[in-house]
Specification:
342 residues; mainly alpha; three-stranded parallel β-sheet; two-stranded parallel sheet; 13 helices; 5 strands; globular; binds adenosine monophosphate; binds tryptophan
């Protein structure tokens, strides 16, 4: 089978390491919701095994796992349409991850820019899991023979590595196209949402000041305040997109507006070109509140009943296992392990 003949199947994941941001929403979750309505089988995972590659307080990890699940559901992921579960409930991820640790090469891992950024000068002291992380991510995707992987820009290299792992496995074991060549889907105006105080840095869950990011749990007042205080420059908005090339903060706010209003950055410039921040920022704040406040309210409501979230995740993990287990058993057989598929 080629990737084209594998069932069109979407897989993506989000780490429960701290709260969800506007970057997660626009770069990932909102796009997961769009793909759910199309001709794909959609599988979305709260990747708790990835979160522990850096220290997580156990009680906070449980809370964050439920909160990411609540964020998915509140944004429109329907657990009866998509398979929604947490990674640790499906042990096949870790099992296939081990096999891929034996396929991936150390040299490949050494080239991963996210590892270099996260490890920094401290590379000797970080966990071995942080180093092996991309091979577990490959296992997440390939355990379902997923063909499409919607992610933000920062994950492109990891999806490319997944293709390298699939290709080496297929070649080494003469397994033809057993693992498909998955496509990274990195589309839309907000594949890299930047920090509101420094347009050269990505908006992330961790970071010194809460003013740098919009959290999906922020209330209307906080969302509006953060946009109004976002760093900009003194110039009005340009008349064409080219005029944003040297203005990272301005470009970021235009991209966010475009993604929230489901249009293009060109269309936003066509509407607001020549206007000052006194007009654009309140319009952006209103739009963000209109789109995000209902989600944050719904997340809070869902979080009031954690047992219900756990129940939904468990149900999702049963469905995930039904797809994963035969693929894992076939993989073991291909590798030469004695087991049910041998
Ligand atoms: P993480 O929170 O690192 O697990 O990321 C989960 C998903 O959100 C991945 O697909 C990321 O690429 C995406 N993502 C995280 N931060 C951003 C951002 N600032 N802009 C766009 N996408 C992002
Ligand atoms: N590595 C991704 C991130 O940090 C999260 C992730 C784990 C993922 N497994 C995945 C994304 C599989 C897509 C597919 O954002």
């Amino acid at each position: 089978m080629t990737a084209a003949t594998h069932t069109p199947r979407v897989f993506s994941g989000i780490k429960p390491s701290g709260g969800l941001t506007l970057g997660n929403y626009l770069g990932a979750i909102k796009r997961f919701v769009d793909m759910q309505g199309q001709d794909y089988e959609t599988i979305y995972c709260v990747v708790d095994l990835h979160a522990i590659t850096v220290w997580q307080d156990p009680a906070e990890l449980k809370h964050a796992t439920r909160e990411v699940a609540a964020g998915f559901i509140a944004s429109g992921i329907d657990p009866s349409k998509s398979i929604l579960f947490n990674q640790a409930s499906v042990p096949q991820h870790a099992e296939l991850g081990w096999i891929f640790n034996c396929v991936a090469r150390v040299g490949w891992m050494n080239r991963m820019t996210q590892f270099k950024d996260k490890a920094g000068k401290n590379a000797e002291k970080v966990s071995l899991g942080l180093y092996a992380y991309p091979s577990l991510m490959a296992a997440d995707i390939l355990l379902y023979h997923a063909t499409h992987v919607p992610v933000g820009e920062d994950q492109k290299q990891h999806v490319e590595l997944t293709r390298d792992i699939a290709s080496k496995f297929n070649k080494d074991f003469k397994a033809e196209d057993f693992f498909p060549m998955c496509e990274p889907i990195i589309e839309g105006p907000a594949t890299r949402v930047m920090n509101l105080r420094d347009g050269s840095k990505k908006m992330s869950k961790s970071g010194e000041s809460d003013m740098e990011r919009i959290n999906m749990t922020d209330n209307a007042e906080t969302i509006a305040k953060k946009f109004k205080k976002a760093k900009t420059d003194p110039e009005p908005l340009p008349e064409s997109l080219d005029g944003l090339s040297e203005r990272p903060e301005a470009r970021n706010l235009v991209n966010i507006y475009a993604a929230l209003s489901e249009t293009s950055s060109e269309a936003v410039i066509a509407e607001f070109g020549g206007e000052g921040w006194g007009k654009f920022k309140p319009a952006l704040a209103d739009l963000a509140v209109e789109k995000l406040a209902p989600i944050s309210t719904e997340m809070k409501r869902l979080m009031d009943d954690p047992a219900e979230i756990d129940r939904l995740l468990l149900k999702g993990s049963d469905r995930a296992k039904e797809i994963a287990e035969p693929i894992l058993q076939k993989t073991y057989d291909i590798v030469g392990m004695i087991g049910p598929a041998a």
